[in-house]
What we know:
Elements: H1 2-8, H2 26-50, H3 64-67, H4 70-88, H5 100-131
Helix pairs in contact: 1-2, 2-4, 2-5, 4-5
Amino acid sequence: RFTQYLASRNTLFNLNNFLDKGALQGYDMSTFIRRYSRYLNEKAMSYRLVAVDFTKMKRGVDGVMRTMNTEKLIKTLPIIQNQLDALLDFQANPNELTNGVINSAFMLLFKDSIRLFAAYNEGVINLLGSTHPFHTSMPC
C-alpha cells in the first residue's frame, strides 16, 4: 500500500538530506536511511511506470514475466534493473549490520532482492526463448 501511495503522488519520498543528530549512532544510520529511501523511490517509480510490484507478482512457468510479450519485456526489464541498482546501492558491511535499524532495512532489501532477481531472470528467460530461432510452444 505504501508503494502504491508513493506511486500515486507526484512527489518523491525525499530523504536525501536526512540526518539524525539526536543520537550518537544517528550519523551512521542516516546514510542507510537515505539509501533505503532511494530504493523506495525507485520502487514507487517502477510501480508508476508499469503498475506492477515486481516483488509481489506471480512467478513460474505461467507467471507474469514468462508470459509477457517481447515488446513489453524490452520496456520492463530496464525498469527492474533500475530497481535492482537502487537496492544494491545500500552497501552495508557486516560491522554495520549489528545496528538494528540498518539490519532491518537490509533484511527488507534482501527479501526484495531475491524476488526482483527472480522476476528479472524469468523475463530474460522469456526474452531469450522468444528470440531463439528454434523456439516452439511445445516443451522439450
